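Board notes (copied after class):
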Amino acid sequence: MKYVVREKMFAIGDDYWIEDEHGRRAFYVDGKVMRLRDTLELQDVNGAVVAVIHKKLVSLRDTMLIEREGETLATVRKKRLTLLRQVYRAELASGEELEVRGDLVGKEYDIEYEGERLARISRKWFTLRDAYAIDVEREDADAGMLIAVAVCVDRLVENEHGEE
């Protein structure tokens, strides 16, 4: 299933719908203001919170957390000691790890688990400059979590490279 994401929509205080490939509303992003740290809530169409995304307050490297029901679901940060390309990782609460690799700035990358692609993030499918797709390839994958990982990577890459 593909989901359409609009760039620059993840600013704090911005609210936005993420649509599926058929134009139906799939997730709602609620940017929270007046919080100690940047916070976004990813909600399903019924308003249930799928994930809370926020920047970790104290860390040596930029780190974002994805929480569900008050528990940390994943910690997303740039992987250390990678040669020639950027790789981010999402360490799951279970200890397993998702790798995010590809052209992160150009929004052409994959989210993988043990070498198997779970989702592809791509701008190619759109003529609009401000949109890209998250194609969740496995039916049994947690689409909300994969979207949250992509949001974290977007924010971390933007913080590192600044707006171009």
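Comment from the instructor: The chain has one helix and twelve strands. The longest helix spans residues 143-161.
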